[in-house]
Write a structure and sequence with these properties.
The complex is a heterodimer. Chain A is mainly alpha-helical. Chain A has one domain. Chain A contains 7 helices and no strands. The radius of gyration of chain A is 18 Å and the shape is globular. Chain A starts with 7 loop residues before the first helix and ends in a 16-residue tail after the last helix. Chain B has a domain of 203 residues. The longest helix of chain B is centred in the middle third of the chain and has 36 residues. In chain B, helix 2 packs parallel to helix 4 and helix 10 packs antiparallel against helix 13. Classes of the chains: A mainly alpha, B mainly alpha.
Chain lengths: 225, 488
């Protein structure tokens, strides 16, 4: 089946899935924290857009609420929070070093291929759109982990963590038309609390090691040094 | 059914009250009273379920059967005894200047917050809400790990937050897949994520998707159980936080995460009809059991030592649930109870021992039995119990696991025996000099409240000698639910 045979909604979802995966790659290669947070906000807005579209086209009004929630939380509140923290900690000029950017990108690509491979069993039971959505969201989850692994700045870790949540949310919206409302609200609440707790942690970490470079959190080891 | 609502309302109310007045001198007493009330509600609930069978709440959001009701009672009990211990312990910490009133307020608030999250994990019928509550438990405890604000504790808390956060995100992905599979058969709507509905229709769910979902669920909740190789946060978080928190983390959180995995396993077994879930759990469990018992030998910090012992026991339980025969399941349920009681008792004793010696380093803790016999004996007897000596309950449950293994997988028995032996040696080489040994100069007895320890150890002893009939009844019913047959 070629892509032009699909209806417009499916094509749009596929486009959004592609864009969301693209933002994940952009984050992976972005060493400035302020821009990293900006790309994260864009990802949140894309997610909200996908949700709102699903709500409108497929006629699931409760998805409007979750679209609003993700726009508010992931598009606006959390990025703003992070942005302010970066400025307050004086990190807005700092560059996070990325070792081996080329290898990192290749690794990211491999993760996308792997996600498609893992999602293959699902394709027999579902449409092309669902397969792509699940594979892309799994890829976004894994790319978020790769982002966390490759960075040393605590802020970048938080962005990676939150983009993992974005990936999960995308899977829920596209493949299952959103989780039940009580679950969505609960997850949104957890994400919000997590963002606040992360903010508290930035100050605790800075007070204890005088920077946000988590490489220097190395006091706890398994054996005596 | 009122008892369930009460059970959830009490910690919620306690949380609100303590968030305002948690730094007052009588806050600890209020904390204890909340836990007494919750225990009363859980006993009421238990009696209700014992007489009237499984219960579903009006909105189908809460579901109580024999599998979770005994865990609810256990959670309430350990929560209460630990809060009794936490009173004098936190006072001592405040006197030596490790705590400010604000942090004490945070501690008390989050204690109730954690209890609320635990009750919600256990009582909810909705797999999504279960995830939310599990993440809530992380959020409630993570700031407590860094309560002392030492560089080590901040590092431990950060590690805990990141590892458990990322780990549990995998479980959310698994939950989404579960919902995806269910929705295709049951239609769009809120009901497709209810455990009871999923359980009734497990046979129709798509096996390929459910198998994939279980892998994610196991990795996600397995991070919380502390399964190797996802265990790295556990020893750090247990050793750097306040000791009452170590006791409830070890005694309750790990159990409840395992509870969640087993709930998922029941669904997946019903759909797949093969032993995939069981084999995965056996593999992870056995690996954790063996690796943790080796790590016991290398430890220098007393709380780290016992957190590795927790990983070891959780591994054994995961393994036993994985074996999946009625006897193995019965043994795993029994082991959850005995381990939770024994380990929280040990952490209470360890907390006192560390305060007595002024350090958590094992080579500096000496002569406990001469300085304060109650602490010394508590530690010695607790270690004997957790190492699996008769006549304590841990012996009975470990022995049952061994027997079940010999029946189904005889070639794995040597590995289990090896792990038990290694763990025994690893514990005793450290504990023996701490309990006996010469008293360092200037070591004085402290104000300690050891009745929680005595009570827990007495219960474990009782369980080792005889299982009360109502408890055995629950275990049998839960075994039938999980493994599909009664143990005989």
């Amino acid at each position: 089946m070629s892509i032009t045979d699909l209806d417009l909604y499916s094509q749009a979802i596929l486009l959004l899935a592609g864009l969301i995966a693209l933002t994940s790659f952009l984050m992976l290669g972005q060493s400035r924290l302020v821009r990293l947070v900006f790309i994260f906000a864009v990802q949140g807005c894309l997610l909200a857009g996908a949700t709102a579209m699903a709500a409108g086209v497929l006629n699931y009004p409760h998805l409007y609420i979750s679209a609003g929630l993700s726009l508010l939380l992931k598009g606006i509140v959390i990025p703003l929070l992070l942005h302010r923290l970066i400025h307050r900690m004086g990190l807005h000029r700092e560059m996070d070093t990325i070792d081996h950017p080329a290898r990192l990108m290749m690794g990211g690509t491999a993760l996308v291929v792997f996600s498609y491979y893992v999602s293959l069993p699902i394709v027999q039971h579902s449409t092309l759109v669902t397969l792509n959505a699940i594979a892309v969201s799994l890829a976004v989850v894994l790319l978020g982990m790769l982002l966390m692994i490759s960075r040393r700045q605590a802020v970048a870790h938080v962005v990676g963590f939150m983009s993992i949540e974005n990936g999960l949310f995308f899977a829920a919206v596209v493949s299952t038309y959103g989780m039940p409302m009580v679950v969505e609200l609960g997850v949104a609440f957890d994400v919000l609390v997590a963002a606040v707790v992360f903010g508290v942690f930035f100050f605790q970490i800075r007070a204890s090691i005088d920077s946000l470079n988590v490489d220097r959190l190395s006091k706890l080891t398994e054996v005596e040094r | 059914m009122i008892a369930v609502y009460l059970l959830l309302f009490i910690p919620l109310a306690g949380m609100v009250v303590l968030s305002m007045w948690g730094d007052r001198p009588n806050a600890e007493r209020f904390n204890i009273r909340c836990n007494i009330a919750a225990l009363a509600a859980s006993v009421w609930l238990a009696i209700d379920v014992l007489w009237n069978g499984p219960q579903l709440s009006a909105g189908k959001l809460l579901y109580i059967d024999s599998y979770n009701v005994y865990l609810i009672a256990l959670t309430a009990f350990v929560g209460l005894t630990t809060s009794v211990f936490s009173g004098p312990y936190m006072n001592h910490e405040r006197e030596i200047g490790r705590l400010t009133p604000r942090r004490l307020k945070l501690y008390h608030t989050m204690y109730q917050g954690f209890m609320l999250a635990m009750y919600l994990v256990l009582t909810t019928n909705n797999m999504g809400v279960m995830w939310v509550a599990m993440e809530g438990a992380t959020l409630a405890t993570v700031l407590l790990v860094s309560l002392y604000r030492t560089p080590e504790s901040v590092e431990a808390a950060w590690k805990y937050f990141i590892l458990c956060g990322v780990g549990i995100a995998q479980a959310l992905f698994g939950t989404v897949l579960l919902y995806f599979a269910a929705e295709q058969k049951l239609g769009v709507g809120g009901d497709a994520l209810l455990w009871t509905v999923l359980h009734d229709n497990a046979g129709q769910l798509e096996p390929a998707i459910l198998g994939l979902a279980f892998v994610f669920l196991l990795v996600g909740y397995g991070t919380k159980i502390g399964l190797v190789p996802l265990h790295n946060w556990l020893p750090d978080a247990h050793s750097e936080g306040p000791t009452p928190m170590s006791a409830i983390l070890s005694g309750l959180l790990l159990n409840d995460a395992l509870y969640a995995v087993v709930r998922c396993k029941i669904l997946v077994d019903g759909s797949l009809g093969n032993h995939l879930a069981g084999h995965l759990m056996m593999g992870f469990g056995l690996l954790s059991f063996l690796v943790a018992s080796l790590f016991l030998h290398r430890q220098t910090d007393i709380k780290r030592l016992f957190s590795y012992s927790s990983i070891e026991h959780m591994g054994l339980m995961t393994y036993a649930f994985g074996v999946g025969s009625p006897w193995a399941t019965f043994a795993a349920l029994f082991h959850m109870t005995t381990h939770s009681l024994t380990k929280s008792a040990i952490f209470v004793t360890v907390g006192h021992a560390a305060q007595l010696a002024g350090t958590q380093r094992m080579d500096k803790i000496r002569g406990l039995i001469l300085t304060q016999p109650s602490i010394g004996w508590g530690l010695a007897v607790g270690t004997v119990a957790i190492a699996g000596f008769p006549p304590f309950g841990v012996f009975a449950s470990e022995f049952l696991v061994l027997v079940a293994t010999m029946h189904d997988y005889p070639w794995l028995t040597p590995l289990l025996l090896l792990g038990v032996g290694l763990a025994f040696a690893g514990l005793f080489r450290h504990i023996q000099p701490m309990v006996y040994g010469d008293v360092p100069e200037g070591q004085k007895p402290i104000h300690a409240n050891l009745w929680p320890v005595m009570l827990h150890l007495a219960l474990v002893l009782w369980l080792g000698l005889a299982i009360p009939s109502f408890l055995g009844n629950w275990f049998s019913q839960a075994t039938q639910l999980i493994s599909g047959a009664l143990p005989q």
